[in-house]
Prior knowledge:
About 80% of the residues lie in helices and about 0% in strands. It has one domain. Helix 1 (about 10-35) runs antiparallel to helix 2 (about 40-65). The mean pLDDT is about 90. It is an all-alpha fold. It starts with 9 loop residues before the first helix and ends with a helix. It contains two helices and no strands.
Amino acid sequence: MLGGYTIGYLYYVITLFIMSGLFILYVDVKDFQKAKQKKEWKVSRFIGWFNLIIGFITLIGNWVI
Length: 65
């Protein structure tokens, strides 16, 4: 684009990945652990960590590029 002006939504995506990952880890994981729902607890942990890792990889990738 001429002039170098672009509209990007990448920082919103990064923020959503990181915030949703933290929310899942702090809220859902504790609730499922208290309710002794082992499968839901494992899946919730996986999704939370997956969101955090993807968010940080995207953030670092954006800095490199």
